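1st attempt posting a full record on here, be nice pls
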Amino acid sequence: AVCGTTDEPPTVPVCIHRSALNNAEFRECGTLCANVLSAEQLGTAERLATKNISAEERFRLAEWDVLETSAPALRHALTSLDCEITSTVEIGTHTVFSFTVRAAGIAAGDDELVYLGREYQRLDASTSALV
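the predicted structure (as tokens):
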């Protein structure tokens, strides 16, 4: 889960289940790229959302670019937020990582993909309404 926290400095919290294989990897490397996908990338989102696949497997599932922090960014994402960890907090089953955004890539056009009510849904880019 990702959402905005502050504008100055631009900060986002990212919640990752403690048992996810990538939880320890994010702690170790200190960077992360949060990607917003288009509705057309549903299949990619479903494959990448699997919690128990290794980073190596994840990288084979899609095409990637490298951003300012050297974090991998999903090629063709609508938005990519290149971030560095500023703090972590353990809450229940998850680690909440607080990230400062160092760079952002933004593409225009397609409807966004959101995860709501335990399923993926399309968010109409022109009206911001779920369809």
